[in-house]
Design brief:
Blueprint: H1 2-43, E1 47-48, E2 51-54, E3 60-69, E4 78-89, E5 98-107, E6 110-115, H2 121-129, E7 141-150, E8 152-158, E9 164-170, E10 173-178, H3 187-209, H4 212-218
Parallel strand pairs: 5-7, 6-8
Antiparallel strand pairs: 1-3, 2-3, 3-4, 4-5, 4-6, 7-10, 8-9
Helix pairs in contact: 2-3, 3-4
């Protein structure tokens, strides 16, 4: 009886160790595929990540080469480009229905605003994100305790009335406790909240700081 218990305990420990090892070697691919799959479905364009490196012990790491492709019909390849941003996960929550991201720090993102009358690439992406018909909400929930975007730039481009371009700074964005306080929120709801805030800051920065002709081209986005 005692021997069987010991064997069973050893087997349980062995299975747990194997599971931990598998988790350690797959966490990066899990995060990468989640970003690409959910992001692409929400935006209606290709969302890609070139690399993910997260410590299986601390949950801290980096995500590099984040790109959101432009919708069809626009000349620029990408709407959003982030060379690298840092993330800190509560690793244990990856095994629950509520994933907790302790911190998401986005540094030096480039948002390319391309205006065609009456279309605009950023507005087209937001329209797809806000369209409930474009994706099925997941069962998983997500909390982001601290989100920070800094040193952002908006590159403005239009061929309306002749080719023109400009580049402006995006004011710093800091958000706390996303996914908390207003009831439980699905992963897509939290992502949508961030996307709307970032896009609005980028477009309003363009209206305030862009050249007069650029401002006239995108002013109708806020009507």
């Amino acid at each position: 009886m005692k021997k069987g218990f010991i064997y069973g305990l050893i087997g349980l420990v062995a299975v747990s160790v194997v599971g931990l090892v598998i988790f350690m070697f797959t966490i990066d691919s899990i995060v990468k595929s989640s970003i690409q799959d959910i992001g692409s479905e929400m935006t209606g364009t290709a969302v890609t990540v070139s690399g993910v490196s997260i410590s299986p012990f601390s949950g801290k790491g980096t995500i590099s080469g984040f790109r959101v492709a432009n919708p069809e019909g626009y000349s620029r390849d990408f709407a959003v480009e982030i060379d690298q941003f840092s993330i800190e996960l509560d690793l244990m929550t990856l095994f629950t229905d509520e994933v907790v991201i302790r911190e998401l720090l986005v540094d030096s993102p480039l948002i390319s605003v391309e205006q065609k009358l009456p279309e605009n690439n950023i507005k087209d992406i937001l329209d797809h994100i806000n369209s409930m018909e474009s994706f099925e909400a997941s069962d998983s929930e997500m909390v982001i305790e601290h989100f920070m975007l800094r040193n952002g730039r908006a590159a403005l481009y239009t061929e309306v009335g002749g080719e023109r371009s400009a580049e402006v700074e995006i004011s710093e964005i800091e958000l706390n406790d996303l996914g908390r306080g207003g009831g439980q929120q699905a992963v897509e709801d939290v992502i949508r909240e961030i996307a709307e805030e970032v896009a609005e800051r980028a477009l309003r920065a363009a209206v305030r700081s862009g050249g007069e002709q650029i401002r006239d081209a995108i002013r109708d986005l806020f009507d």
